[in-house]
Write a structure and sequence with these properties.
Blueprint: H1 23-30, H2 34-48, E1 53-63, H3 92-105, E2 109-114, H4 121-136, E3 140-144, H5 152-159, E4 163-165, H6 172-178, H7 184-196, E5 200-202, E6 205-207, H8 213-224, E7 232-237, H9 254-267, E8 272-275, H10 284-292, E9 297-299, H11 312-321, E10 325-326
Parallel strand pairs: 1-2, 1-9, 1-10, 2-3, 3-4, 4-5, 6-7, 7-8, 8-9
Bound molecules: S-adenosylmethionine, 6-(5-methyl-2-OXO-imidazolidin-4-yl)-hexanoic acid and iron/sulfur cluster.
């Protein structure tokens, strides 16, 4: 239970464009009385964005399963016995067909994911054609292929990639509980390469992994202190998949999820904050509160990578109810 002071005084708000966020400051934001936190986030959202517009990204898994990494949340890891069947890399034509469908459904961005630690050069070469052809359809392009080696981000950029997604996933202090096959520092290094190549950065994390509120504050502070801040910040609510070590994690209360969205919006006022994985398990009213608290992007399409997402019709209906329009 959170205790709200009997006589509530509005705590001093850090400037919305503050660059250096301490974990204490973000934790204090997360601990504001719920209505105050949502109100402040909504206020800041309106300073930088049209609150009736929402960015729609469609995901496709171009290479599924069999990943050598041991991320404790992920159904695609070789280390966990999950219902996901390994699939070889999709062909360029298959990816382009999926992108055409995404565009027809109204998506603005197409995000290609692969279950790799990082791309081998031969694999990367195949993805460059996908990027080129998806870009030619008039969609924004995004890729999430894991750790990048020198030169790979530049090749993606030259092929027409707009965004690279690479998540910090959790707070530095919590990280070693979740992933053992690569370090936090490796992730920061890849993010640096992505930036250096001139790509836009999509970087966020996952909540609902038995972390504390302070851990959530630690993740948001890390993201907000990236310089420049990521253009796009996916906030995933863990999708619990049988066979993964986190299949039985205690579920985050919906209010705590909304608080996380609101704090991300306040700490990163100019970023698109994406209400990401976990929406299928979330009721419409909670999603609406997330949008009020500053979320202005979603994954749109019947599937995420290997798990389900609300279907397109359900999302179109929700957007119509909330008078939200696709960007
Ligand atoms: N293999 C690459 C990597 O890990 O960087 C790219 C694909 S990986 C599946 C992309 C992101 O999906 C992860 O960083 C994580 O944030 C998210 N993710 C994976 N499994 C998830 C789950 N069960 N629930 C929520 N998010 C998940
Ligand atoms: C992100 O932050 N979330 C997406 C995307 N980036 C690649 C992935 C969510 C995956 C959820 C589990 C699955 O479908 O396999
Ligand atoms: Fe592999 Fe990415 Fe899943 Fe980790 S999150 S196991 S790197 S696919």
């Amino acid at each position: 239970m959170h205790t709200v002071p009997m006589e509530f005084k509005r705590p001093a708000a850090p400037h919305p464009e503050q660059a250096n966020w301490s974990v204490d400051e973000v934790e204090a934001l997360l601990g504001l009385p719920f209505m105050e936190l949502v109100f402040r986030a909504a206020e800041i959202h309106r300073q930088f964005f049209d609150p009736t517009k929402i960015q729609l990204s469609t995901l496709v898994s171009i290479k599924t399963g069999g990943c050598p990494e041991d991320c404790g949340y992920c159904p695609q890891s070789l280390h966990h016995d999950t219902p996901v069947a390994d699939q070889p890399m999709m062909t360029v034509d298959e990816v382009v067909a999926a992108a055409r469908q995404a565009k027809a459904n109204g998506a603005g961005r197409f995000c290609m994911g692969a279950a790799w630690r990082g791309p081998k050069d031969a694999d990367l070469a195949k993805t460059l054609d996908m990027v080129r052809e998806v870009k030619a359809l008039g969609l924004e392009t995004c890729a999430t292929f894991g750790l990048l080696r020198d030169g790979q981000a530049e090749q993606l950029k030259d092929a027409g990639l707009d965004y690279y997604n690479h998540n910090l996933d959790t707070a530095p202090d919590k990280y070693a509980d979740i992933i053992h096959t690569r370090e936090y520092e490796d992730r920061l290094e890849t993010l640096g390469k992505v930036r250096k190549a001139g790509l836009s950065v999509c970087c966020g994390g996952i909540v609902g992994m038995n972390e504390t509120r302070r851990d959530r504050a630690g993740l948001i502070a890390q993201l907000a202190n990236l310089d420049p801040q990521p253009e796009s910040v996916p906030v995933n609510n863990l999708v619990q998949v049988v066979g993964t070590p986190l299949a039985d994690a205690s579920r985050l209360d919906w209010t705590e999820f909304v608080r996380t969205i609101a704090a991300a919006r306040i700490a990163m006022p100019k970023s698109y904050v994406r209400l990401s994985a976990g929406r299928r398990e979330m009721d419409e009213a909670t999603q609406a509160l997330c949008f009020l608290a500053g979320a202005n992007s979603i994954f749109y399409g019947d599937k995420l990578l290997t798990t389900g997402n609300p279907d397109v019709l359900a999302d179109q209906t929700l957007m119509a109810k909330l008078d939200l329009r696709a960007l």
